Amino acid sequence: MFIVENEPISNLDMRILELNTEYLGITLGMLMQQAGREIARAIEEHEDVDASKIAIFCGSGGNGGDGMVAARHLHEAGANVELYVVGTKDRFSSSDTIDNWRILEKIDGINKDTLPTESSIKKCNAFNDADIIIDALLGFGLSSNVREPIRTAIKKINKSVATIYAVDVPSGIDSETGKIWEVAVEADYTVTLHAPKMGLMNAAKNTGNVIVAAIGIPPEAKTNCGKGDLWPFTRPRRKNSHKGDFGRILVIGGSDIYSGAPALSAMAALRSGADLVSILAPEPVVPAIRSYSPNLMVEGTGTSILNSEAVEKALDRVRENDVIALGPGLGRNEETVCAVHDILEEIADVGKPIVIDADGLKAMASSGITLEPTTSILTPHWGELGVLLEAKLGDGRDPEERLRRATEGAVKFNSTILLKGPIDIIVSPDGRYKLNHTGCPAMTVGGTGDVLTGITAVFLARGLGAFRAAAAAAFASGKAGENAFENFGNHITATDCIEALPVVLSR
Questions:
Q1: Which CATH architecture has domain 11-223?
Q2: For labeling, which of 266, 278, 315, 319 is most exposed (least CB within 10 Å)?
């Protein structure tokens, strides 16, 4: 039994699913084989394909590869199949598409040709002679006007009297919005892969009847963190990027005793790609934090601990930054707890993105404050979750109990929860969850939670939502720990994890 989803999916989430499936060991080529088979199956269920004339028009990407696989199965079912590559074979952008073309070259029963120009398309008789046409020209992700020669091919398809099947998305449709990029295939059926693309809901004239086809994506690709979750946060930067485009992060932490925690969060934020990272800390530890790195901007609160006298300065700095990381090393002084409440109330009112960890969580427990789930992330371990819920949680070994309690916390504080542990659990108040399996026992060393806080803050600054940011951060932090373990075994430090981040984020 294969899995299909009937809820519309965005381009980004579909790409994440594909990459997570690949991370599980199921290659994109394997998905292509399943997709082509299901496209053929859908056509066989709706048409009498035996001896029918089927013309398949393929583009140079994965959509074209899906059409090539379908061609083999329809040929096996007795159809008279002709396949045309619109463009030239040297433009194939997918190695899997190349592999399937090479297979077709050895199958004499399928007529094959290329249509490299508008003129060759206009001369092609298949548009008029076919009983069934399969549009495998362009897949999801189109974001500009259709170019020649595909533009002419689409116009010819629309003039045909054949029954038209589109693969995944009718070519020329914006799969995210349903916009027509000047010209688009008007299909009788659209065989969409795994889940309907969001744009199909707004393009009924072009989609015809929508058939959702399973392509072998397991449910774990959705519920387990993988390289797909990290992918949106590691895209190349634009050439015209400016300082601050990739996050201004403020770490509020430290106390008259603790200096290392806020420094670790800040250094992890820098290594995760933040443009500017500043720390606001009590005066006694400012010199120590400054000594960690000249890359950090460190400012004192003017007080020996974070207290009511420091709140106004803290709120000024909150307004100047994109994301706040609150809690590392703050301590649990009663005055500090009151100051945290004041800061959180302001952040809740303005909706400023925030990551709350460590002593910030303990202070929040008694605040009664709720936040915005798309812009707030709480990162407790099991013991801190118990403090947040004001409950005795037991030993936390039962995975279902951990998920249930994390969900309870997410609902209580209306925030995304990243519950740290041997298997991290990321939960949204709306019921979505993910499990992260990266990491290693050596990461029980002190400071790795502060590193995670810094990574999470940077990813939250990218504007892709708290749930995505938390899932990506958990995955990256765990991978960094695994990398450090490969080099140092059970003798790693939090700074080793920080130094491993550039390698993890460049893969």
A1: 3-Layer(aba) Sandwich (3.40)
A2: 319
